[in-house]
Design a protein that fits this description.
The chain is built from 13 helices and 13 strands. By secondary structure, it is of the alpha/beta class. Helix 4 packs antiparallel against helix 5. The radius of gyration is 20 Å and the shape is globular.
């Protein structure tokens, strides 16, 4: 864990633009970035999503691309610097970055990466996704001189969340379901997708779901018996481009068809990569909120 950057012998460059320091909020405490970074490497897709929304380009990004909205960044003009989990240290070093951004999936690599360049951990510092996204967007805006754009994005998100919470209030109880090929699991409050309830305002159907990484495994009979008003469906197979049946195929059976959610057409098949991989990106969260607004508007 770290509170400030470690500058190792391999550090080839410093933050080269003279500017005021910016404090970045991280899970390990505040980190100060001096100046304005010019060459950026990121392993966090949420940060990549927000930087792109702000109009800040990056030199190095993780591969493969899983987020359709970011597909244009993978045009060969930028360097792929490893995966979401494993950095390609040679490629990172060759870029001589001024700043490296890591995330939840790369946290174990912070120490070696910080010997190449100043490194900031963009793992969520709070379970409140709204606070995380707003804070990271505003702080990146300040770091790169994009304050006006950051404020506009945050204001739009806030307005949309207020609208959505008005729609979800008293609209019935929802259950987050992940399909992984033919398998299904559910998530509740306190889980990695607890923000669907806490931030988006969807009333939880169940309070005692085991908060495991990939949810609590359940059967189709379980979905039938608990009978959600709303099904929020996340297709992990599509999110990671794996082989297997799509969520719509997995849930196409008589037991699930008899639930209130299916009977009323109150099923949201979330955009999987935004929901799962670029979760904390400001554009990504806005996309998810907009999708929920459209679904809940249809029932009013």
């Amino acid at each position: 864990m770290f509170a400030h950057f470690v500058r190792g012998a391999a550090l080839a460059t410093t933050l080269c633009t003279a500017a005021a320091a910016t404090e970045i909020t991280t899970i390990s405490g505040p980190v100060t970035v001096e100046g304005t970074p010019e060459t950026i490497v990121t392993f966090d897709v949420g940060a990549l999503d927000t930087l792109t929304a702000l109009g800040v380009d990056v030199a190095g990004l993780p591969a493969p691309n899983r987020v359709p909205a970011l597909e244009g960044l993978y045009d060969g003009s930028r360097t792929t610097v490893g995966s979401l989990f494993e950095p390609d240290f040679e490629q990172v070093f060759a870029l001589k970055p001024d700043l490296i951004i890591t995330g939840t999936r790369t946290r174990d690599q912070i120490e070696p990466l910080s010997k190449i360049a100043p490194t900031v951990d963009f793992s969520p510092f709070s379970e409140d996704i709204e606070t995380v996204v707003k804070t990271q967007t505003l702080e990146l805006g300040a770091l790169f001189g994009k304050e006006d754009k950051a404020n506009a994005l945050v204001d739009q998100l806030h307005s949309s969340l207020e609208e959505l919470r008005g729609l979800t209030k008293d609209a019935g109880k929802g259950l987050v379901v992940m399909t992984n090929g033919p398998k299904i699991s559910v998530f509740g409050p306190g889980s990695r997708f607890g923000w669907v309830h806490d931030t988006l305002g969807v009333e939880p159907l169940l309070e005692d779901v085991e908060a495991q990484t990939h949810g609590e495994a359940v059967s189709f009979e379980f979905l039938h018996d608990v009978n959600p008003d709303w099904l929020i469906v996340f297709d992990r197979t599509r999110a990671v481009n794996a082989d297997g049946p799509k969520a719509e195929e997995t849930l196409d059976n008589e037991l699930v068809a008899e639930t209130t959610a299916m009977q009323k057409g109150q099923v949201i098949y979330v955009h999987p990569a935004d929901f799962y991989i670029a979760t904390t990106g400001v554009r990504s969260l806005q996309d998810t909120v907009d999708q929920f607004i459209e679904a809940f508007k249809d029932t009013k």
